[in-house]
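RETRY 2/3 - previous attempt timed out on the joint model. Re-submitting the same 816-residue input unchanged.
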Amino acid sequence: MRASTLFGVIVFGLAASSAAGPFSNDESAEGTVRDLYFGEAIFYAHQGHFFEALERLDAELGQHRAVDEPALDSLYHNLREAEFSVGDFELNYRMHHRAGRAITAVLEGAVDEAVRNDAAYRLARIHFQKGQLEDALHALERIQGRVPEQIRDDVEFLRANVYMGLARHADAVAVLRRLQGAESLNGFAEYNLGIALLEDGRRQDALEQLERAGQVESADEPVLAIRDKSNLVLGTLLVESEQFSEAQRFFDRVRLEGPFSNTALLASGWAAATGEDFERAVVPWSLLAERDATDAAVQEARLALPYAYGQLDVHGRAALIYGTTLESFGGELQKLDASIASIREGKFLTALVREEIKQDTDWVIRLRSLPESPETYYLMELSASHDFQTALQNYLDLEDLRKKLASWLVNFDAFDDMIGLRSEYYGPVLLDVDAEFRELDSRMRLRLEQHRLLDERLQHMLVAPQPEFLATADERLTAERLAELASRLEGVDTSEAEVLRQRIRRLQGLLTFALRTEYHERLGEFARHLEELAEAIQVLSTQYEAFVRTRQAAVHSYEGYETPISRLRRRVGNALDEVNMLMARQGHLLEIVAIDELTARRERLETYQDQARYALADSYDRATKARVDSGTTAATQASGEGR
Amino acid sequence: MQKLFKTTVLSILMCLSWAPHGSAQNPSSEEMRSLDEQVQEIKSDVLGIAAELSRLEERLLYPSNTHLAVFVSIAEGEKFRVDAMQINIDGRLATHYIYGFKELEALQNGGVQRIYAGNLATGAHEIEVSVSGKTQGGNDFSRTESFAFSKGIEPKLLGITLAGPETIELGDW
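RETRY 2/3 succeeded.
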């Protein structure tokens, strides 16, 4: 447990230094987020809701790729951040495969040097987290030229970590030396340099470096934790080389309330005890023995404390403490048995998915806050194993997916009801509306055709004037009447007829005169009227379009959903089956790991218990013997004085 | 008894052997890794379903000709605290939202919240935005602003930007 916890702090350092990039500070590089849906994805990501963040961003990127003119799309200005963010969100949602693919796509695209280097760094980080060190190094080697300033230190820190993973400690030392003093890596670069030096066989340099790492100043909890860790490791190394009092100094620097406090108190006691200074050993062990009984260091201290008293010849007190320890070990063994039994009954998995566990993004802290019950007594102990962490996170993610899928299935029923109601309402209404609409539609089409013909005529007259086209109705009737009279007079060869013909011609001349002289005025009026008509037609067309859209919307509100809903219902059902199957398998594995861990813990506690029993008996014997000896001495002295 | 110390020292020294995650090779680890791959796959599938479902929901619940969505963001660099926001549209309550710490932090870090999605007829409308919270100096503030907007036949996206405790801006998107 302790090893993993300690290791976890280094990884936290890496994560902490890199997590700031993806969806917080990077935006500033190209200004604020201008795309609403990308902004929405960031809103979810900052709250740790990576599923929702991915869903929004996937959809937005999909739409962006489908538009004809990407430069006009609002995502265009944030495209690079959005593409990186997808990978980051996927990584945070523990989808390493997709994250790797997303970032590789950026890396292989036509992007500038800084972007390519950023992508290569992110890819290297994914490989590193998956334990693919050679691939991580290969990705880091692709970084050449300009590296964005905000990731420059992170790139080198990752490179050093990869070197350490590959046992290239001298290379790691060289890189880490350059990172000393880097603000964002405060404490982490110092500590890792100490470890790299140690692994490189430069023990004295390592001790000096760890001493420096153990004195870094900060108010940040992660930095304070790595500082504690540096002191703890340094103290342990000094104990190894039998520099007990020197070691004490560093154990004492570890904070009493930090994550390494219990280990440091235990080690501090052992450093003193190994140096035969049992009075000093009693101090940290007494403090530690009062702490949470499920912690392995506390259990060890409860055995070590009476041992120290025994060494100080305070056997009576030692015997009393051994008695209390045995009692507490008995209690802990019962708790372990109850935990194992509870896990076998399936209560462990139920406890893991309790609602209160969702109150905090840090699940380890969440586990701390769970109410005490057999299935949760030793969760903190289990939580430190990496396999267990991965399995637990997957189990919680699967539970989250299960809840989502189950609620979607219910939604489909609601959709069906909604569509049914809409169909019942709109079906009959649309029949009447359509009948009325058809009549209006034919009248409108007629007017539109008339407008088109008049417009054609106007255009024609602008080229070739035709005054008769602009005659009023009276003028047209008069002209027709005159033409009719003229035709009736055809072939009549009398003087009266000739007089009438002349009158007809005069009247026709008058009409022609009026049409010709008023032509331009009439043409202007015609054009004006036609324009007014065009405006009226525009209003009509808008209303017509609005009606058509509304009608379409009404129809679309209940038609065309059957196939997609049925397909989605089937997909959701299949996914739910798959999730349930995976949850069962994942849960079973979690139970196995938990039971294995707790059984090992139980065995160790039983060994402690045996040791405590023997030590208790021994202490009683010694205490009794001491009492007898002191009684004999007193009697001898008394008889001597009597004589 | 001294053996205990060796156990302790060993457990501490284990932290010095530096290795990334996933280096253990016991059989259950292999099985867990295989399960992990499958979990990644089902996550991908469910994300695909979620995307399709979102499109369907949007089409069904908010047809494009009546769709109105209201988004909220906080101007860059602003650190005042927003406690609650109420939005009325045409005099009727559209939504009332109380902010938690994480949501506020997400907004201050460039996040954009879709605070309301609904349906609205085409034409002229009015939106009233009320915000309450605390200034960076710790004083309570409350502010209400009204804006006119018009809804056409296309979806309408409105963006409310809180440019300061006393400044509410509305923009089209």
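Confidence is low (pLDDT under 50) at residues 1-31, 360-371 of chain A. Closing ticket.
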